[in-house]
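To assess whether the prediction recovers the assembly geometry, we first specified each molecular entity separately, as shown.
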Amino acid sequence: MTGDAAVHVAGLRMSFGATEVLHGVDFEVRYGEVFCLLGPNGAGKTTTLEILEGFRAPTHGQVSVLGLDPAAQAIRLRERAGMVLQECGFPRQARVAELIDQWRTYYPNPRPLGDLLEVVELTEVRNAQVRKLSGGQRRRLDFALALAGDPDLVFLDEPTTGFDPEARRRCWAAIENLRGLGKTILLTTHYLDEAERLADRIAILRAGRIELAGTTREVATRAGLATRISFTTPSALRRGQVPPPDGIDLAVRGSESVCHTGNAAMTLRLLLAWAVEHRLGDLDGLAVTAPRLEDTYLQLTGTNGDQA
Amino acid sequence: MRRALRLAARQALLEQRSFWRSAEYALFTFVFPLMILLLIGAANVGSHLPGTQIRNTTVFVPGILAFGVIVAAYVNLGSKVAVLRHDGVLKRIRTTPLPSGAYLGGLLVSTVVTAIFITACTGLIGWLAFGAVPRAGEPLALVGGLVLGTVCFASLGLAISSVITSAESAGPVAYASFLPIAIISGVFDPTFSGLPDWLSHLVAAFPVKALAQVLQNTYAVRPFPAWDLVNLGLWTAAGAGFAVWRFRWHS
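The predicted structure of the complete assembly is given in tokenized form:
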């Protein structure tokens, strides 16, 4: 069971004093995938990650990371798993390449320095003082240090929180580079677009529980959200010269007609048959929009998500 | 175990490299004590302790040795660990497979190396400029005193690092918590006296005067500093206990 998963979590519970913050969390991260733990602030993402990284022992449940028990085998785990924590400083006076080189000495099989600089796109500033780097560059230096030991698995805790769009884009590029190296990546975020853009699979964590897990599409579909089908309202329909299609709950909103359906194929077949029957052609502006993660997420977390 | 020692040694080397590169640390640790040594030492040349044949500088130089040890072990280590903690560097180190013991051991070894450097400079200048040398047969006692002082103040440095609340206040807090005591302990003035009784008893309870007297005893004949050794032992235990109790990897 755990043999083919990089991370295996089952029945994970965590309490601080009398307060339980994780109420039985289950998920698996497969080798080579980018897995995203998505959720609002306070959902328990960082606590979950800290348990997987071996910084905290769980109150209950099974946790296995790269086949190791993180709490009991922390040092062996850290030889094979890179960790980017939310906020972590650098030694003062350090220079980029030098610091990466220092980090390489901590690992049994370090990755070559030039390689690391390239993956995180810091080759140009390799001799710069760390304190002179921008926020985005510092975050990519975080990545380089986490990669210094050429890990199989990388944990990224909210890697782009607080960044401007350009810095986020470059961080994403660096994460894509990691994926290209075949690394398994477990990242947390509260940004939907980040999850949607980067992740192979997503688990939505809210108030200490996994609400949904799967591929982006699966998550959205399983949340019970409908596919949206829209097209430009044919003038014949608008003028009442043709009847609306049977069996479809079509809303005519001026120039656009919209319907929502749980079965897109069936609805499309009906719709096109209706169009042929009434000589409406191919239905101008026909668009089929799959349920978006954002809709799922907003529906799940609602407005009280932040209080979780 | 051998691997941990090797890692600690390498970490100590890295720490030393960054120490010598950082102007503020190197300057404060070396220039400050050596400047005091030369300036106040020069003012005391030719004077003797009242009613004795003991030259002022013979007592003053070992006092500055104590001062150097305290700056290297207490101020430097204490503020360094506080800064590393508040900057999040300690937290980051914990994400690597480097054993905690090897990392902290490296910091301590680096502190000892710095203490050796400052002690050697002070002793050498004290000898060349003021002719102050340890009594015949006492160099071993001097080394023993320096080792005890370094261990004692390193444990107190680790202890104070847990009390410091920000990286910016680390240096000032470390200095402010010992300079006044050093002054009323007479470290900078061999003829310092005239404290009210209660205050001189209070000062005697702190480890600054104790270390100064242990080292002064190896330069000039004085009563065997048994109480001072006990004092240093107790402060070492208290400092180490507090340091272990309150040590945190993150702020």
